[in-house]
Design brief:
This protein is mostly helical. The chain has 18 helices and four strands. Helix 2 runs antiparallel to helix 8, helix 13 packs antiparallel against helix 14 and helix 14 packs antiparallel against helix 15.
Length: 384
């Protein structure tokens, strides 16, 4: 989570911390911390055993160390997959594959048939590495395209884990506790990296969440500096003055909670559902993505969400007043909002309904509010 959100993503979406899964991991980490000293001490005690390891024990310790390294690398490397489109992976693969073959040949670990097979594999991957024009590029890129991510999640972590273990063998080959030492050091590395990743959140989240208190960040997000305030509506008169005036009218003059229809928001900065958000008046349909997150687990809700979305689209797009009226009455919609987003949309996002679809409301619904860019129509209850 930390590597993806803070180091590998395009922007820091800190609200992900509040998802149930992250909270579950947080609680699990706290519970795990209670037993951490004992676990760490158990690994440490393995290094104090003076006897030489049996071959089976050494193999088990080495396999466990490799599994820890593979787990760490397979979690970390995908966050940097975007950086692999550079000359460095080409050179790295050529060195690793060639070195792997030469090392096995010098140590005489492979028989004649296995050596030929290994050489063929090395030559194949080197061929891919030197032919980026063929559309494959490195072996890693080849597996990314043909193996559904096996390059960064399986091949590269496995290869690097093997190389790290091999280097450890060279450094500690004369030690009696070689397997235990590799397992202990792998565990320590995993612990330190995960600890560092967890420690990123307080620093990054504080900066991200408190940007409104720093002039440079306020200017970056809204292009101007405004005094800090707890009023969530304070920025609206500058950011969207006509919608802000209509929102103020709704808050001051509309009693109870009649249902309204407005542009269905995609979420966050799309300006969708802003009349409902800033007044508390329920809408026919809110942010479609978030509504689906919370309600689609209930029987029949997915179909209802789709119907509400289509009803909103028909209300604003159709030029037929009778069809629009049927949808408004079917869902008990009393207020129809024709504001800036309904008219023009949002740059780079959906929105902006046909002019003839918006103009039809003048013919069959009374106008209760109007400013240069916003009109609010009232749909009286049907006589039937």
């Amino acid at each position: 989570f930390a590597m993806k959100e803070y180091l590998g993503g395009e922007w820091m979406r800190n609200n992900s911390l509040f998802k149930f899964g992250i909270n579950a991991w947080t609680l699990a980490s706290v519970a795990f911390g209670v037993f951490l000293p004992r676990i760490f001490g158990a690994f440490g005690s393995l290094l104090k055993v003076p006897k030489k390891e049996a071959p089976v024990a050494r193999a088990l310790f080495t396999a466990a160390a490799g599994l820890l390294l593979f787990t760490l690398l397979s979690l970390v490397l995908p966050a940097f997959v975007g950086y692999f489109d550079s000359p460095l992976p080409y050179l790295t693969e050529m060195v690793l594959f060639t070195g792997f073959f030469v090392w096995n040949w010098m140590e005489k670990w492979l028989n004649r048939e296995a050596s030929i097979a290994a050489l063929a594999v090395v030559l194949f991957f080197l061929f891919l590495a030197v032919l980026p024009s063929a559309g494959y590029g490195t072996a890693l890129a080849f597996l990314e395209r043909t193996g559904k991510g096996l390059g960064t999640t399986v091949l590269l972590p496995a290869l690097l884990s093997f190389m790290i273990l091999a280097a450890a063998y060279l450094v500690w080959e004369r030690r009696k506790d070689l397997g235990r030492r590799m397992l202990f050091q792998s565990w320590r590395t995993l612990l330190l990296v995960f600890g560092f990743m967890s420690a990123l959140y307080p620093m990054c989240a504080t900066t991200r969440k408190c940007h409104d208190f720093l002039d440079v960040f306020r200017r970056q997000w809204v292009s101007y500096v405004e005094p800090p305030t707890l009023d969530g509506l304070a920025y609206l008169p500058k950011a969207n003055p006509y919608d802000a005036a209509a929102i103020r009218f709704l808050n001051e003059h509309i009693p109870d909670q009649p249902c309204l229809a407005e542009f269905v928001g995609e979420g966050y900065n799309s300006w969708g559902s802003r009349f409902s958000i800033f007044t508390g008046i329920p809408a026919l349909m809110g942010w479609d993505g978030h509504v689906r997150e919370w309600l689609t687990g209930r029987p029949g809700m997915d179909a209802d969400i789709n119907q509400r979305f289509q009803a909103t689209e028909q209300i604003f797009r159709t030029a037929d007043p009778r069809l629009a009226k049927r949808y408004l009455d079917a869902y008990g919609v009393r207020l129809v909002m024709v504001g800036t987003v309904e008219r023009y949309g949002v740059p780079g996002r959906k929105g902006g309904y046909p002019a003839e679809g918006l103009a039809k409301f003048q013919g069959f619904l009374p106008l209760v509010y109007k400013n240069p860019e916003v009109e609010i129509y009232y749909n009286p209850p049907s006589a039937n």
